[in-house]
Amino acid sequence: MPKLVRTLFERRIPHILALYVGASWGIIEFVNFAVDEFLLSPHWTRVALVAVLLLLPTVFMLAWFHGKPGKDADEMPRAEKIGIPVNLVLCAGVLWLLFGGEDLGAATTSVTVETEDGELVEREVAKAEFRKRTILFPLDLGDGLGEDESWLAYAVPGAIEYDLSPDEFFEPIPAFVLRDRLEGLGFPDLLGVPTALKRELSDEVFAEFFGAGEIERVDGRYRITLRLHEVGDGSVAGEIVQEGTDLLTLVDEMSVPIKNVLGIPEREGIEDLPVRDWLSEDFEAVAEYYRGTAAMFVDQDLDGGIRLLTSATTRDPTFTAAQFTRYLLLLNASRLEEAMIPLQTSMANLYRLPERHRFIVKAEYYFLAQDVAKAAAVVEMWVELHPNDAQALRYRLIVQQGRGDSEGMLATLTALRGLDPRDGSVLLQIAGVQEELGDNNAALGALAEYVDAFPEDETGYVRLASLERRLGRHADARESLERAILINPLSSRVTAALAVLDLYAGNFAEARAGYERALELARTSAERAQVLDGLKGYHVFRGEVGEAIRAANAWVEEASSYMSPIVLAQERIGDLYIYNAAGREVAAGFLDEMKAQIPAPLDDYLMPYLESSAFAEWGDLEAAREAHGRAVEMAEAMQFGQILEDLQRIRARIDELAGDYESAIDGYRAALGADPGVRLRRALGRTLYKAGRMDEAEAELREALVPVPANPSTRFELALVLEAKGDMEGAVEHLRTALAAWESADEDYGPAASARAKLEELGG
Questions:
Q1: Which of 419, 434, 618, 641 could form a disulfide with 439 if both were Cys (CB 3.0 to 4.6 A apart)?
Q2: Tell me: the pLDDT tens digits for 184-193?
């Protein structure tokens, strides 16, 4: 060993390696400087580090053969001739494997957009790969703070997010999105959540970093400790401690260290005002603002939130963030006329908001003013200026969904998927749109991809089972749900999905027991409401209209505890068919209730939409046509393609009841193109029967039985077709199957009475 050491020193290998390490360090520092100065891909620093390590064998060989004092040999040794090229090739191969798929260009990209004034604006925006998805949890309350100061726990992370929001490299995920999840785990106020659980939940929302810490008061001064963790392994990437008397000044002082920990580069042209300039100079107004947001998003106290936000905006009318939040709360409270006031004030004080927030305000203003074209134009400009802004793309989705633009939605969702391929929620949305477009194979592929990527998430299996059931693959659907129940045996959602499968297969006792079990397992109002929504369908399926209405009322009671009034009213619209089944008087009462709950201007198109459907079922066809015309006019003006598609179905129903069967058939077929559901297919089969086109009617009705084999309404309609074709045995069989489902139907339930009468007529 001493001889080897002496030889190494004789050949000056330690000296050369030391020089190489020093030069390598200089190269890495230079690369790091270039990355920061010219906003290059951060991957270059790692490329340089890996390259200098991989080239060590070459440096060693050069030192060994040429490091000894004296003249080098004229001929290169064989080991050097072979070893150095091999090392270089190996280095290139490893670098290609590690970084070949990475973006090694600039960390930003240039976009050029024409503004509303016709001016061309060029902007450098962050590439999606280099944005830092970060969730900041509410801080724990430490010493010196009372219960009435719990708002500080939410205010600090909220203010930090606001302060950093102008920089596109920072992509915040509001902790409020986890509220329902945390409530089910016993943390409804989002406070006191263990770090391990924070990491797990951060991973679920595909964050790269999560922030946790505490705030305390020491000797009259705030002390904030914020630890930023890497979600991958939970390790602390950095800890920031600030102390002072002015809370908002502390937030400003924390912003630069936070950027450094997250690896967000400094660059010119980014709005960097003190956070009080974005919020308010009035500290009490800021306190009322965060108390109000906590009241709404944590306590779900809508009235309390409105009261506190009103107080904040009274203290500082130019507090635009508070004005806009107050608008959102009033909107959710169905107080649309009042909501326009703070929204107009927000428009007048847009300068108090970062640029991306201004787009949100403008879009909402035009939406509320019912100028959808301008709202869509604002959203498009927002997307063009900030193509990697997930919030902008989600606003575009809202516009496209309202217009019924499924192709556009698919393109937008694909763009969202590109921003973060880890975000499986987008993959589920893609599968849903592919279903709407009738591309079932693509939808199955997307769901299979989700299940492979997130094998521990029951959601993928539940969605996959739903599609498999719709395609008539009931055994596959049950297998998918059985996998889901293995993942989470206490899931009310999976248990309810199994109950649906039993119901549609005709296993009524098992289905009823499944719903009861799901209700027992439900831990939150949202989970109970989801089960009750399925229970409504169960009772309607079996002709138990009275029980269905009781389930609907129970659903309202649960949903009203977490849904805003405006959302609740819109969700209830779909229950009209239940009340129609109970008779005109009950349905009219439901319409009156909806009229009182749906605010202007939403009632301009939602009420005619509801009335056209109700009047048709009541046999008042002239009134139905008049209401339908008003609904179409409003839907076209508002570019509501989705509602227009459903209005096509209602028009077909009016034509069917009026005896214009050919027109109704065309209408149902057109509606089926947008929504290939069982009810539409049954309606088409029923109308074809009335038109005397028996073979076509039978084909449609048998197709309607594929996803729901035990559906009694479809069985009854098919029995009538088979009777007309002379197949009495088949007709009796389907009538008996229908009546088995309607065994416990209400005495005055018309379809069950008609089926019994028909069975007696056929001698069954």
A1: 434
A2: 888 888 888 9
